[in-house]
Specification:
Layout: H1 2-9, H2 14-21, E1 37-44, E2 49-57, H3 62-67, E3 73-81, E4 87-97, E5 104-107, H4 112-116, E6 123-131, E7 135-144, H5 149-154, E8 160-170, E9 177-186, E10 192-195
Antiparallel strand pairs: 1-2, 1-5, 2-3, 3-4, 5-9, 6-7, 6-10, 7-8, 8-9
Helix pairs in contact: 1-2
């Protein structure tokens, strides 16, 4: 069974390896009290996909929390996912991850207006094509109305940038396409990026 999983999902998929380590049934997850605002998230990296609960404290948005946080972040009620998003038997009441090693942190139930809005700085949306170490994706990025897209992309900060209407295709398995209404993208994982101009992609399909 393990050999079949590796063949199906690839040697680089962490979920297949972690499932080999889990023997027997696991106890039910018990929610622990968390301080401040809690968001249901999905973490996406080149070799990792996981769902869970992220406490962002008193911050309004995930992007604000991650851009002001140093070190590992704790995820509660964590479940390892396969590349196609199916849950595995690998679960943990708490697990710590390095956000700088993640490509995206997606909000499972996102109020886009609340996650991207800024009352003081008017924004406009720009459609992008982005290549990362594990995915190609199309999405919309929010930038100031008087900002230049090239300057925004070339800037090293903020490290995590909000995206909406994300469609990501796995490079390991092109059959796997994931969609998220809102996510923050790690700039360090941008291999290439360009503006999505009219006619470049048919019906906004990912590459």
């Amino acid at each position: 069974m393990a050999d079949q999983q590796r063949e199906e999902w690839g040697e680089g998929d962490a979920s297949a390896h972690l499932e080999e380590l889990v023997v027997g049934p696991l106890p039910e997850l018990v929610s622990a009290p968390q301080i401040g605002r809690v968001e249901s998230v999905e973490l996406v990296g080149p070799y990792l996909r996981m769902s869970g609960q992220l406490s962002i404290g008193q911050f309004r948005r995930i992007s604000d929390f991650l851009n002001n946080h140093e070190g590992l972040v704790g995820i509660r009620e964590a479940t390892m996912l396969r590349r196609n998003g199916e849950p595995t038997k690998v679960r943990s009441p708490s697990i710590w991850v390095a956000p700088h090693e993640l490509t995206m942190v997606a909000q499972v139930q996102a109020d886009v207006a609340a996650t991207t809005g800024d009352l003081q700085v008017p924004k406009m949306t720009v459609p992008l094509i982005v290549v990362t170490p594990g995915h190609t994706l199309t999405a919309e990025v929010y930038i100031s109305q008087d900002a230049d897209l090239a300057t925004f992309i070339e800037s090293p900060s903020p490290l995590f940038i909000p995206l909406t209407d994300i469609r990501a295709r796995s490079l390991a398995d092109r059959r796997i396409i994931s969609r998220y209404p809102f996510a923050v993208l790690n700039r360090r994982h941008i291999v290439a990026a360009t503006e999505l101009l009219p006619g470049m992609l048919r019906e906004r399909e990912v590459l």
